Amino acid sequence: MPRPDPLSPNAQGALWLLASVAGATAMTVAVRLLSPELHTSMLAFLRSAFAAVLVLPFLVRARLSGGAPIRFSRWPLHLLRGLLIGVALNSGFYAIAHLELATSTILFFLAPAFATAFAALFMGEPVGLRRWGAIAAGLLGAVVILRPGIAAFDPVMAIAILSALAFAAALIIGRQIGSVDGSDAVFVSSSIVVVAATLPPALFVWGLPQGGLAWAILAVLVLGSAVRTYSDIRAYAVGDAGFIAPFTYLRLITVGLAGWLLFGETIDGWTAAGGAIIIGATLYISLRETRLRRRVARGAAAP
């Protein structure tokens, strides 16, 4: 029997992103289900503490394999990145608990636009007028959702945007220190620092899940978060970002469907319109950056 042809790198990347969508959706639903019983600050800490256990194999491997040890040459940036992820987790979980699931997810998608702006402002990366226009469009989409002066302002939406800002800043710092210390060091440091960053707020609302069902949902939260993180890394490692990036937005469908089926939530016209603008802007940024990277690669390969 002939062996089936292997999947192309883009097909593999798309499948990994679908796994990421499933993990992110499971995590989002689990946060909402547990939030009536446990404060979101406690959920952020438990998620971080259990996820940090996954760091131990990296530490053991570094010690036993005889290879180069994990190093933290820029430890202030490692520390700052972990603190930013702690802010993103706490504010993101709070937004999930108090906003419609689709609305919070749409606002989280502002992170790529913020990351592009931070890269230009703080790292000196060239960003042309078209990408600045896409960033402005993404912010316009957020304004449409917030609709100031038309509806009563919901401060939780600002907390969701804060989560996107913190995550974007952590992404840029991770790119900077990862090029020096490696991705393993970034993963280890952020996992450990996030536990320390999420512990103080959790101490004021301390509590543990009661009953087997609550612990099972917490396990789904931790596992979903881990699947999302790992799948994102694998997806962009094997696939073309310009091809696989649109699959990320399937999360809006899965999260919106979960919100409708489990919590009776619906999306109003303003949120749908603002979401379409944000998705269009962030997708353009992803495609544009992919084209620019290809152009640079072709130039470097030319004789």
Question: What features would you describe in this structure?
Answer:
By secondary structure, the chain is mainly alpha-helical. The protein has two domains: about 220 residues, no CATH class; about 70 residues. The longest helix is centred in the last third of the chain and has 33 residues. The protein is globular and about 55 Å long. The mean pLDDT is about 85.
N-to-C CA distance: 44 Å
Query: Unreliable runs, pLDDT <50, ≥5 residues?
Result: none
What percent of the residues sit in helical stretches (DSSP H or I)?
over 70%
Structural class designation: mainly alpha
Structure summary, number of beta strands = 0
The largest β sheet comes out as:
none
Gyration radius, in Å? 20 Å
Strand content: under 5%
Q: What's the average pLDDT?
A: 83
Instruction: Provide the number of structural domains.
Output: 2
Figure out the total of helices: 13
Q: Give the topology string: H per helix, E per strand.
A: HHHHHHHHHHHHH
Question: Quick one: overall form?
Answer: globular
Keywords:
single chain; 303 residues; mainly alpha; transmembrane
